[in-house]
Fold this protein.
Amino acid sequence: MHYHPKSDLLNNRIILITGAGDGIGREAALTYARFGAQLILLGRTESKLASVQQEIAARNLRPAFIYALDLLTASQQDCQRVADQIAQWVPHLDGVLHNAGLLTEITPMAEIQLQDWMNVMQVNVNATFMLTQALLPLMLKSASSSLVFTTSSVGREGRSGWGAYAVSKFATEGMMQVLAEEHKHTGLRVNCINPGGTRTSMRASAFPDENKDKLKTPADIMPLYLYLMGDDSRRKTGISFDAQPGRKAGPAE
Ligand code: NDP
């Protein structure tokens, strides 16, 4: 995507990112902070969140809050506690980027371990739903807020071996469409991003033998992440966007 936002695109915007300690979420945090946003960094590993928080502070950007939460074990009460804590910190949320995700072994449906299936559904679908439900009131307090889910090309067209992960991303697309429809007359827009193959540890676990140099980095795909959090996307809702339009799914050669 060719998008050149103004340097103050996200000034005064308050954005929560899940899975902000690593990979695409980490890059989104640093990028949003650079464009003026105040951030709430949520993730599983507190030390990784603290390191992103320190990096933001070292660049003299708006100080970020951190909240450690393991989405694998998170309950509805835990998600409500997140919302209650955030309401103590800030008056509203202008953006939520649901980026945390779990990918387990690539294996045929017939061989998926039930616990793996449950874990993927818990992190990618149930926790995403519970957090969204808890955070909606804070988002609706903003005059214009953006809810962004993270999908995948296997969430649009099933692919052999991608089992629970693919099904969870189809569910993510569905969650986005329902919410977008429900909120089309409010200030909340709801969309999905498909990052496309991107150089992170999740990608390396799925395609250990591919040529990593051929993959885009998290920094390369940030234009779409910026576009969807800023005012230029104000009228876009119910859309599943590609950060790398035209890229063929599968390993980089
Ligand atoms: P990474 O594995 O690099 O990062 C995932 C982040 O999510 C990490 O910060 C991780 O925390 C966090 N996370 C994982 N499980 C939990 C949990 N139980 N509770 C809280 N946080 C958790 O993945 P990517 O950056 O590659 O992926 C980001 C998103 O993009 C995912 O939704 C993924 O499905 C999607 N995606 C990625 C593609 C790619 O090629 N990279 C392609 C298509 C979609 P921790 O740091 O503690 O491990």
Observations:
- Residues 14-242 form a domain with the Rossmann fold fold (CATH 3.40.50.720).
- The pocket of NDP is lined by residues 19, 21-25, 43-45, 48, 70-72, 99-102, 123, 150, 152, 195, 197-198, 200-203 (CB under 6 Å).
- The helical segments are 23-34, 46-58, 76-89, 114-140, 163-182, 201-206, 222-229.
- The chain has a mean pLDDT of 96.
